[in-house]
């Protein structure tokens, strides 16, 4: 079985964000970082080389023997968009996503081009709701 490559590490979140060349995307990431710190009351950690994650939980796949640790919420400045990770899956939050504005979704990912395309208050509510729900799920599985 292949080992998971995306793991929490001690790389600097601030240094990573400074590598974002596009100023608008870097500023959006700084806003998301501040928002997620407020919501989670946790310090961010790098997961792999390009994901900023908050909190963690241990999972065991029901379909395979894979298990490991994963962040509860996080984001990544991808080339095409900002990816925000919403656990345990975006389908649980369809009503909030409808209110959000211009975005795309898949499984546990919310894709936005820039923060100006979405309602920031709704985004914060979505992240807060998903974070609290995932914390409860993680607690139940212990």
Question: Could you characterize the architecture of this molecule?
Answer:
The chain is of the alpha+beta class and 142 residues long. It has one domain: Alpha-Beta Complex (Aspartate Aminotransferase, domain 1), CATH 3.90.1150.200. The chain contains 4 helices and 9 strands. A 7-stranded antiparallel sheet has the order 1-2-3-6-7-9-8, covered by helices on one side. Strands 4-5 form a two-stranded antiparallel sheet. The longest helix is centred in the last third of the chain and has 21 residues, at 120-140.
In short:
This protein has 142 residues and is of the alpha+beta class.
What structural category characterises the helix and strand content? alpha+beta
- Count of the separate structural domains: 1
Shape: globular
* Sheet with most strands: 7 strands, antiparallel
Q: How much helical structure, as a percent, in the residues?
A: 25-40%
Which ranges are low-confidence, i.e. pLDDT below 50, for 5 or more consecutive residues? Answer: none
The fold-level CATH name is: Aspartate Aminotransferase, domain 1
- Highest-level CATH class: Alpha Beta
How many H/I helices?
A: 4
Give the DSSP E fraction (strand runs of 2 or more residues).
15-25%
Examine the secondary-structure arrangement and name the CATH architecture. Alpha-Beta Complex
Over all CA atoms, what is the radius of gyration?
Answer: 15 Å
User: What's the average pLDDT?
Assistant: 93
Widest sheet: strand ordering: 1-2-3-6-7-9-8
Could you tell me the number of beta strands? 9
| Order of helix and strand elements from N to C terminus | EHHEEEEEEHEEH
What is the distance, rounded to the nearest whole angstrom, between the alpha carbons of the first and last residues?
24 Å
